[in-house]
Amino acid sequence: MNKLDILEKKFINVLTHIMTIFMILSIAMILLQVLTRFIFKTSIFWSQEVLMLFFVYSILFGAVILMYKQEHLQVDLFEKLPEKIDKLLNYFVKIIITIVLLILLYYSFLQVYLSIDANQVMTSIPIGRWIMYIPMPICFLLMIYFTWKTGEQS
Asked: What confidence tens digit (pLDDT) does each residue in 52-107 have?
C-alpha cells in the first residue's frame, strides 16, 4: 500500500466521521423541530435551513464514500463475459459516469459562482447560500477521481 492509498483511506475515514456527525445533527434537528412544534406549540424559524445544510452535506459526502468503496448502485446485467469484453464494458461505464459527473461539476461550479455573484443569502440565517452549494463541485471532483482510481483495483 503506497502513501497515496494510505492518505485516501485516512481522508475517507475523516469524511465518514464528518458525514456521521451531519446525519446525527440532522436527526437531532428533526427531533428538536418535532418537540418545539408539538410540545411547545412554536417552531424554530432557522431549523429547516440548518437541517437542509446538514442533509446536503451528509448526502454528498456519503456519495463520495460510496464511490471510493464501490458500493454505489450497480446493475450486473452481464455476469459471465469474456475478460476483454468485460474490461471494455467496464471502461465504457466509467466514461459514461465521468461524463455525467463532469456535467454536474460544471453546473455546480456555475451554481456556486452565481450564488456568490448575486450575493444570495439563506432566508432565515445570515450566511451565503453558496455555503450550501460549495460541497457539490468538491464532491463531484472526488467522485470522478474515485471512479477511475478504485476501478483500476477491482
From this structure: 999 999 999 999 999 999 887 777 777 788 889 888 988 998 999 999 999 999 99
Q: How far is CA 70 from the centre of its chain?
A: 14
Full-model pTM: 0.85
The identity of residue 20, as a single letter, is T
Report how far residue 54's alpha carbon sits from residue 137's, in angstroms, rounded to the nearest whole number: 17
DSSP labels for 43-99?
A: --TTHHHHHHHHHHHHHHHHHHHHHHHT-S----S-SS--HHHHHHHHHHHHHHHHH
pLDDT above 50: residue 12: yes
> Residue 150: pLDDT band by 50, 70, 90 thresholds?
low
31 vs 13, 25, 51, 146, CA distance in Å?
27, 10, 11, 35
Best CA proximity match to 37, nearest among 25, 26, 45, 27? 45
